[in-house]
């Protein structure tokens, strides 16, 4: 019952926010802007989305190896593509993570190593996104002149950055009880692994580059969407506005970020002095790109060996 109520609440939030955001959009006018060139740019956006998944795979493999759950490149790519499908169908923006965790655990890594690999990978990505937004703040402040917009940007970003830094500091603490108390030992273990991979002289710089590239590619996807409808928005504006929206969309309060993303993008464009309806247009098409990618992931899931063996194999649980 609790899960049903939670899922229902997320569906209602997505529906309500989408309704409010779509009130600013003329869908007939949006469709009329599509040409053959639009399809080309949407195709490029889809290709970049798959590249983004691949870059995420490279980072995840590094993290998984450190967690004791090594993954072959092909298997990791398949799991991430399948995860993109469940991101679109499960009542959360991170539903695909739960499925990736299940797949890794089922493959023999065990629940603990699988959970650690997903959690640490997400944490590193969140820290990288917060750092990217902080690094661009001087230019964001020039773009966003609205005081409410500036305050919201600072609040969301520094909350994420503080959480990320606090997580890393937590992993650096040597208190013995952190490793044994039931409420902290798993979180502390994940933080220790995150510190180990981030500050590793050989592995850390590559992880940093991969993590930042994942978020830059999200900006490129949004830029391709902008080009598809010939919206009067520059690449620099997209680069400054999209990452904060992606950060807000990570909150697991809607279905695949729908509604939250559209409302946030409309507000962000408005705070930057751009047309709020163009922000919603870009967000809708951005979501459509990932919906198409998720559909491909659904096909991969249907044809995968994991789907064929569903229910016939034991889940690997560590000793």
Estimate what percentage of residues fall within beta strands: under 5%
Helical run tally? 15
The helix/strand class is mainly alpha
Number of strands: 0
Ends distance: 32 Å
Helix content: over 70%
> What general form does the structure show?
globular
The largest sheet, given as strand count, sense and whether it forms a barrel, is: none
Q: Can you give the mean pLDDT?
A: 89
- Stretches with pLDDT under 50, minimum 5 residues: 312-319
Task: Detail the topology: elements first, then pairings.
Layout: H1 2-22, H2 27-32, H3 36-66, H4 73-89, H5 95-109, H6 111-135, H7 137-143, H8 147-172, H9 177-180, H10 185-198, H11 204-228, H12 235-249, H13 260-271, H14 276-303, H15 305-308
Description:
The two termini are 32 Å apart. Helix content is 78%, strand content 0%. The protein is mainly α and 319 residues long. The protein contains 15 helices and no strands. Helix 3 (36-66) crosses helix 4 (73-89), helix 4 packs across helix 14 and helix 12 crosses helix 13.
Give the gist of this structure.
The protein has helices at 2-22, 27-32, 36-66, 73-89, 95-109, 111-135, 137-143, 147-172, 177-180, 185-198, 204-228, 235-249, 260-271, 276-303, 305-308.
Name a few traits of the molecule.
disordered C terminus; 319 residues; globular; mainly alpha
């Amino acid at each position: 019952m609790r899960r049903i109520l939670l899922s229902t609440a997320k569906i209602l939030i997505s529906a309500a926010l989408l309704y409010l955001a779509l009130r600013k959009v003329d869908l007939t006018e949006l469709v009329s802007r599509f040409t053959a060139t639009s399809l080309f740019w949407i195709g490029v956006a889809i290709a970049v989305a798959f590249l983004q998944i691949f870059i995420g795979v490279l980072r995840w493999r590094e993290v998984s190896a450190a967690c004791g759950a090594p993954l072959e490149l092909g298997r990791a790519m398949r799991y991430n593509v399948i995860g993109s499908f469940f991101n679109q169908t499960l009542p959360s923006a991170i539903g695909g993570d739960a499925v990736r965790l299940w797949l890794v655990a089922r493959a023999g890594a065990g629940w603990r190593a699988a959970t650690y690999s997903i959690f640490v990978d997400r944490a590193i990505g969140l820290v990288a996104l917060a750092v990217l937004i902080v690094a661009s703040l001087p230019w964001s402040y020039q773009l966003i002149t609205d005081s409410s917009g500036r305050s919201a940007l600072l609040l969301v970003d520094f909350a994420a950055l503080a959480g990320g830094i606090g997580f890393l500091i937590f992993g650096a603490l040597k208190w013995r009880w952190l490793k044994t108390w039931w409420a902290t030992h798993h979180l502390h273990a994940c933080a220790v692994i995150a510190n180990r991979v981030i500050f590793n002289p050989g592995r850390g710089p590559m992880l940093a580059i991969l993590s930042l590239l994942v978020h830059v590619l999200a900006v490129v996807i949004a830029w391709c969407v902008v080009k598809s409808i010939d919206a009067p928005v520059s690449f620099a504006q997209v680069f400054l506005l999209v990452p904060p929206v992606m950060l807000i969309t990570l909150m697991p309060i809607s279905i695949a970020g729908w509604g939250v993303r559209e409302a946030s993008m409309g507000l962000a464009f408005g705070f930057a002095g751009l047309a709020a309806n163009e922000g919603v247009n870009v967000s809708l098409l951005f979501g459509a790109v990932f919906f198409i990618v998720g559909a491909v992931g659904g096909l991969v899931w249907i044809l995968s060996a994991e789907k064929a063996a569903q229910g016939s194999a034991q889940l690997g649980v560590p000793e």
